[in-house]
Amino acid sequence: MAEKKKKDLDRNRSMDPAVLEVLANTEGSGVESAYDRFLNMQPQCQYGNAGICCTICIQGPCRITKKASKGICGAPSYTIVARNLIRAVLGGTSAHSDHGLHTTLVLDEVAEGHGGDYGITDPDKLKRVAERLDINTEGRSDQEILREVVDLAMDEFGRINGQYSIWLEKSVIPERVQKFMECNIMPYSIHRTIAESMAQTHMGMDADPVNLVFQALKSALCDYTGMHIATDLSDVLFGTPTPVVTEANMGVLEEKMVNIALHGHNPVLSEMVVKAAREMQEEAKEAGAEGIKCMGICCTGNEVLMRQGVPPLTNFMSQELAIMTGAVDAMVVDIQCIMPGIQAVAECYHTKVITTIPNVKIPSSYYIDFDEARAMEKAREIVSVAIAAFKERDAEKVSIPQVKSKVVAGFSLEAIEELLASVNPDEPYKVITDAIEQGELDGLCLFAGCNNLKVKHDESHYTIAVELAKNNILPVATGCAAGTYAKFGLMNSDAVEKYAGDGLKAFINRLDEANKDKLNGEKLPLIFHMGSCVDNTRAYDLMTALARQWKVDTPKVPYAASAPEAMSEKAVSIGSWCVTLGMPVHVGIVPPIPGSPLVDGIALQIAHDVYGGYFMWEEDPQEASRKLLAAIRERTWKLKVHRAAAEKYETSLSPTW
Ligand code: NFS
Ligand code: SF4
Fold first, then answer.
1. Residue 72: pLDDT above 90?
2. Residue 504 CB: number of other CB atoms within 10 A?
3. Residue 572 C-alpha to ligand 2 middle, in angstroms?
4. Which residue of 55, 56, 63 sits with most ligand 2 atoms within 8 Å of its CB, as the best mutation to test the pocket?
5. What is the number of the ligand closest to the CA of 298?
6. Domain match, 165 and 300 both
7. Pocket of ligand 2 (CB under 6 A)
8. Between β-strands 244-248 and 405-409, what pairing exists: parallel, antiparallel or unpaired?
9. Based on CB atoms within 10 Å of each CB, which residue in 175, 233, 311, 357 is the most buried?
10. Number of C-alpha atoms within 13 angstroms, CB side, residue 650?
């Protein structure tokens, strides 16, 4: 049998031993997960895969074939691919900015004095955000500052024209804003851009692929803005993350406790459930449990890990398998990346799936409308359902894989800055730029994104990060990529010993040494967990900080991004703004673009000429590591050459490379 065929038939498509154990335990039980459905779905449609299937009007679907080189309306492949691409970006932009809007609206209530159980947890962050946005903080109360910050945030969604996005302008370096203005992709606001982009892709509207791609990038900048608002305001509401220590993977499930899995993305709900669970330990004991344990899946898991030290249970691909351990009493979900399949799996066990948001319901699930005005009351109701479910648990069906690893997480940009400031209080980021100039580090890489069974679950995340760490690239991670590293023990100091190249090891050891009184005896991890997917903005802020330190535009900073197992529309929009903001971006699943060599060429090459960032598609993790290393090292090399020349001739850095 051809190698590919064998791979396609393998149900055990994961590198995670806990996942393999659950799959083995449930083999033949009839409980179906994504690992089975993926096989049922083969072979997948190659037209869709290449992006050349159009369903934008109901004359379609139109597929580009040898016989039919254009859609019925005459749209060629480049129009179809570009329109599909922009719609994927809009899916991501809408999802992220709706999340940001939700956070904004909660803070709007706080600003009006009706926050209920919500309040300003981090007034210092509020001031930092306000100052960044040029909002006066002198002599004003937190409440007054918050009012103005929230008003501006609301404006970022609804502004019609006359003023370009302020949140975007103030979060990136001026050179980038100038670039966006020159290319006419600087947005007024999120909602306006989403509407104009949807209009642009209606049947019989824009057919020009370049115009469409530029509009996709403008939409992606709105994605960035919505995410930045979400991160900034979540920090104000719940605190800016600082280092925390816990464990990850299915071994965190406790046989004798009420296990609540928090799944989704928005901390507005999960923070409250964590709080309620802490308060309701007695109720759980009355029900015969030893207590209540919360644990996270996907990005709501990352949010409560970063701020509350809640252990990550698993990442996207294996969300159903968590239930198949028989030990999850309730899976509480908010928004995004929630497989509808969890309900059918839960019905084979005692697990209650609790949906909580009006636009995220799953038939037959338990729905508790999470009304923010009564947040704690609702959170307690949710925890009560979990406690009641615990009593129904079937001990025969419980089988918890004893697999877990220690995790040190909580690296917001502020937390990283503090670590660096222990070495250089005046210029913290110089600690990184010096390490790169002196050859200790070769650069940085952000690992982000989802899981996707088109490659083996977790394998690409793992392989590429380890390979880059060996080659002295400082790794940071978010989202389900971070989930992989947490599960596999790459987010603790043992991994530094095992995998870091000599330079990276020396760098981390120096930070450890300078911070030894601050980390409660802990040591720093190999990979720095910067948070959920909206927190990719934290990772980009790090790039901005390095660009400011070097006084160069971001495309000159040796910092790449990689989404080895990308899956969602959100990953498409994040990848697009990373490119627009100047990063080389590796994607390990080829997105539906190559059906138009023209659009593919824009993504892979032309983008580089215009924005400095560009995409690289590469499924093979070893090959991807080589490409990422080459992309980062090229920048490091150029930067060094130009800095040496500027020093020698006593001139400023040439802006033209
Ligand atoms: Ni990002 Fe986080 Fe995970 Fe992918 Fe989904 S949870 S927001 S989209 S699957 S990383
Ligand atoms: Fe076909 Fe054109 Fe309609 Fe798309 S918009 S489905 S290509 S006729």
1. yes
2. 24
3. 23
4. 56
5. 1
6. no
7. 54-57, 59-60, 62, 71-73, 75, 80, 203
8. antiparallel
9. 233
10. 0
